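Appendix B, example 12.
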Amino acid sequence: MKKLSIIIPVYNEEKTVGKLLKKVLSIKFSVKQVEYIVVDDGSTDASASVISKSEVGNPKFMFIKHKKNQGKGAAVRTGLKKATGDYVVIQDADLEYAPKDIGKLIEKLEEGNAKVVYGTRLRRLPNFRRDERTLRFLIQYIGNKCLSLITSILYFQWITDMECGYKLVPREALKDIRLQARSFDFEPEITAKLLKKGYKIAEVSISTNPRNYEEGKKLRPFRDGPKALWTLLKYRFVE
């Protein structure tokens, strides 16, 4: 890999996006070039202002704004259109994932066993003191486990955390894939289409710092879970 594109979708993350950008821009990755593509998805808070002040004039830093909110999938697709790296990785702006773990994905890629690398948060039992501290988070844990198992069965490859946001993917693989997702169905869609194209997906464990819904967590298990399941079924049997 000569060049890495880091796509950062943002929606109403004024409290975290500045810290996230500072962290990710400070890391020295083991690639020759890195570009940062930040897509503000129509935020109604001060996110755009915080982003603008973070790296004004940095030639490696591209900032794109949607006029209105379209969803995470749409923001990622906008970033992909502008990406020029050999590989692309997605970094959420909420600080749940540690940017340093992108280095783990790169190291796994360099082992040469797969062209696609996913992070995984689920090679473990439930943590009732932290990650699964409430019933809502426990339901989310179980839901993610179930969706990953269904993905493994439908597409004949074992995956432990299909919903993980960290996905390191060669840009050439995405040229032949028409992504349509506009929301959190982006994760199952890209996974289904990569697997149908014959790409092997390796996984590496990552650390997380989950936030609660009062702090701005946007994923809703009872809304987004069924949509993810339908997406997996649709791209396996319908499209």
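The helical segments are 17-26, 47-54, 72-82, 102-110, 135-155, 171-175, 186-196, 221-238. Residues 3-238 form a domain with the Spore Coat Polysaccharide Biosynthesis Protein SpsA; Chain A fold (CATH 3.90.550.10).
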